[in-house]
């Protein structure tokens, strides 16, 4: 039996939805155009269980036409908030969803468990919104590829050990693959399928 949604307990969305989504959409595009670059978002709203950047990206990219898979537990206030403000149909499995919102990346599936698209329709793949513990422009991994001048360093904390190896495997399937948006506090960084990475060796 489905629990009725208490509208009085649901946090608000953007104060000005049109202006808020426009601002964040431009910043998401900037992040995707420059992989590894950390962008501080101008607009966000506080929601229990979600970082500010996660809520801002969700309000901007999700709607009733985009299916969503998330690891949020049933009954969570954050899940009710997403349902109310975004209206995304909840995907029955990670492999079928247009977007995946992951708040506990340490327990996330391997990337091949999401939709990677096909050679004919690579755009049908899942876009991951990955809420992580730390996002810093240093150490970690060295990123290269389109949109990056030379290289850039990005430290992402909180992802499981299999994340980087499965990301390497997915990169080899290009043009298929997944595009990733990391979210941490009020910051985002992108790692589209075109981006290569190597682990930095400490001397």
From TrEMBL:
Highest taxon, organism lineage: Bacteria
| Signal peptide bounds | none
Q: Name one Pfam family in it.
A: PhnH
GO biological process: what's one of them?
organic phosphonate metabolic process
Q: What is this protein called?
A: Alpha-D-ribose 1-methylphosphonate 5-triphosphate synthase subunit PhnH
């Amino acid at each position: 039996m489905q629990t009725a949604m208490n509208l009085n307990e649901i946090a608000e969305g953007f104060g000005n939805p049109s202006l808020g989504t426009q601002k964040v959409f431009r910043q998401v595009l900037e992040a995707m155009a420059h992989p590894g670059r950390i962008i501080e978002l101008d607009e966000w709203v506080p929601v229990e269980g979600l970082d500010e950047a996660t809520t801002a990206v969700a309000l901007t990219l999700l709607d009733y036409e985009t299916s969503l898979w998330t690891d949020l537990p049933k009954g969570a206030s954050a899940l009710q908030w997403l349902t109310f403000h975004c209206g995304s149909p909840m995907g029955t499995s990670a492999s079928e969803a247009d977007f995946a919102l992951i708040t506990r990346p340490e327990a996330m599936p391997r990337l091949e468990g999401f939709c990677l698209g096909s050679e004919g329709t690579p755009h049908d793949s899942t876009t991951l919104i990955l809420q992580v513990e730390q996002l810093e422009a240093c150490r970690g991994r060295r990123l290269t590829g389109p949109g990056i001048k030379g290289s850039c360093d990005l430290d992402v904390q909180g992802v499981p050990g299999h994340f980087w190896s499965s990301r390497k495997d997915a990169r080899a399937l290009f043009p298929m693959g997944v595009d990733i948006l990391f979210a941490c506090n009020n910051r985002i960084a992108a790692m589209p399928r075109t981006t290569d990475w190597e682990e930095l060796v400490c001397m």
